[in-house]
Amino acid sequence: MTAPYPHPTQAVILAGGQGSRLRPYTDDRPKPMVEIPGTGTPIIGHQLAWLAAEGVTDAVVSCGHLAEVLQDWLSQAQLPLRVTTVVETEPLGRGGGLKYAAASLPRPDEPWYATNGDIWTRFSLREMADFHHERGADATLALARPRIPWGAVETDEFGHVLDFIESPPSPYLINAGVYVFSAAFTGLLPARGDHERTTFPRLARERRLAGFPLPHGAYWRAIDTAKDLTEAAKELGSQQV
């Protein structure tokens, strides 16, 4: 009988972005420290609670913009898991930053999760890890189908307007900013540069990159602008996420 797949117990959170489109909220704090109104917790607080609920015991937070603000909050908060912070002394790019942070994971020979620091979501990371393992992938990315911010118009073949659809789901899946990586993936990352332009395309060609569609009904939103904050507050007001 095959032993069950051990789910990852370590994770990296990429929290070093400037968050320029979220100003003035990010004038005095990094983007992951922004609170969605009504939730009572910053984005990173939600992420750490989610990771801990999914069995993660150790997280490495990659800091950048206003790193000291995030580090101060982490040092004072009652955290549900062990957290280490790293700060890039020079810009390494997304792939290089991921590699730099992964070097501080406590168990380098085990798989790990990663998430962008501006994502508010909740779904089963264990199911995603099983999906990753079943496909023998080196990397698996969560896939979301966001709503288009404009209303759509449905027509028939003669050009007659049939219906107006407010903010319909996109016909395309997008990278949701949540990942499962094998232990070997760390060595495939560039020391500098963007892994989405180097490592991911290579793995895709070799069929070693998998995409996990978010389960139906799972909440997901990237917090990029003030409008995202407002809409997330409305959405989360009707559910506990």
From TrEMBL:
It comes from the Bacteria. Pfam families: NTP_transferase. SUPFAM superfamilies: Nucleotide-diphospho-sugar transferases (SSF53448). Transmembrane segments: none annotated. Residues 11-236 form the Nucleotidyl transferase domain. PANTHER family: SUGAR-1-PHOSPHATE GUANYL TRANSFERASE. This is Nucleotidyltransferase family protein. It comes from Streptomyces chrestomyceticus.
